[in-house]
Amino acid sequence: MNINAQPMKLSVILDKDVQYEIPTFQRSYSWKEKQVETLFNDIETEPSPYYVGNLLVDTSGEKERVLDGQQRLTTLSLILLATYVHMQRKLKDDQQELSDGLSSQLHEDIVYIKNNLRINDNRESRLTLLKRDQESWAHLLQMIDDPHKIPEGKGQYSLGKRFKFIFEKLFEGYDAPMLHNFYTDKLSKIEVLKIMTDDISDGYQVFSSFNGKGIPLTPLDLVKGIYFSQRGSLESKWEQLTEIFTDGDRADESKMTRFVLNNYDAFESESTSSLTKSKIVSTYENLFNKYGTNYIEELINRAKNYREIDNDDDFYRYDLSGLDKLDATTSYPLVLNLLVNKKQYELSDDQFNQIIRVLINFYIRRNYVLTPKASNLRSSLNGLRLRISSGHLLGEELVQVVQNKVGELTPSDTAFIEAIKNGVYDVNKKTTRFILIALERKFGANINMFNKSNPDSLDAFDGKNLRWTIEHIIPQGDLKSSYWINVLGNGDAEVAQAEQSKNVHRLGNLTLTPYNSEMSQKPFREKVDLYDEDSETFVGLKAKLYLNTTIDEDAEYFNVESIDQREALLVDKLLELLKSVD
């Protein structure tokens, strides 16, 4: 193992013509404000020299490639730049107030910091980050030449946000002497254990043994190990893979983790048990040893399909967007396998969608009855996947096998009805929203709420908020209204509160409205007759929804008996809906 480890001051690490490069198989910059502030405070308050951690680099190329420690190195560079800009501004804006000695010291400091951040006569950045981070970093480095320039663009990314936080918040209150002392006594004297290797596979062995004070490794960081151990040329492929899970300026590590687990269960496992997080690295190392580095091509293709399943859609429909709303992750290996192999299984789009509908109807029941247990359910569906792939099932036969197996797992009508009697909203809000919308779409076609001039907006947002929300006819929360206390408890607040607690989240007490905040604890008749002057339409419980046709709009009050009667109607319609696969 050809490794050289030396403790060094930060001022030495960032000296001469050494350039550092973040390889593309690394993660983008991802430190949060809390981590940045912790590091800054440690530098500020701990005795000098403060040991900040390890820096593992591959020295085999023209630039030293950072294998571990990139989050710290990038953050320290941001702190250096913020120090530099503050010093330059003090020299220009407070020149009359600075002593000659302090002014000279600051001039000397900024020369050193500039050399820390740039090389080759101030022409090149010492640190080369990943593409998006590098764009932000290049913009920020413009402040070396013009400290009063506020770079436009790129500020929405993590790097720009963290610099702004350091510059404005962490250095708040720093005067010129404090800046000088912070740099010379603290920042420049930070100690780093620099570990150098010219053999990338040796680097992996060191990398695997520690992660310093950085962010814990995510499962897909194992690609680094695969790269190191197999010498695969994965840089562009790694970037392609992470981009699939990237929204904004950073990858969604939770989705990446779920993909790694589900990919194995969907395609590689020969048993019904599921891969656990603790076994991800060893399992995937075996896969790459078996298939070679080209296996990443499979991961990229499957990840694209997986994002259709584990999606960010806001739609409550009978498709993959709806399945994602129903805590249906136990079905993901099966669904991923079917989606990727749809052509091989000779599944038409209609047949695939029929399977998704069957699964949605199953999870609606399961999410209230709470059986089968999640681990047992995942195992059963993994077994179904194995049966499909080993039995060479195709087309309609495959669909029928899925329907039959899911039917065996499905809770009975009796169990389902008994479960929802006890309430639905407090058991699973998303599933409750799904069934309310599904009932409306199934049975409300002739009610005339939605038409060509007023399209279905049940999934729409107003800003960041859903336009249509779930309305509790008998209000939830503390009963403050004497009206509802009289209706539910005949004037007895304690009785009313007890009746409300037992019944408020039942299906018979729920509907949809875009005017939830205006209804609140209003009396029943006011909720029914709520009217919008601008649109000249009823927008309360008289709004033209199927769900509202099950409410007696001529009644003077709405009580527990009203819930019972309405729920009986809705449950019948819900069972009709759940037995449909069309």
Automatic annotation (TrEMBL):
Keywords: Methyltransferase, Transferase. Residues 13-228 form the GmrSD restriction endonucleases N-terminal domain. GO terms for molecular function: methyltransferase activity. Pfam families: GmrSD_C, GmrSD_N. InterPro entries: GmrSD_C, GmrSD_N. The keyword Methyltransferase applies. Residues 413-571 form the GmrSD restriction endonucleases C-terminal domain. Signal peptide: none annotated. The keyword Lipid biosynthesis does not apply. One of its GO terms (biological process) is methylation. PANTHER family: DUF5655 DOMAIN-CONTAINING PROTEIN, SLL5132 PROTEIN. This is Type I restriction-modification system DNA methylase. It comes from Fructobacillus ficulneus.
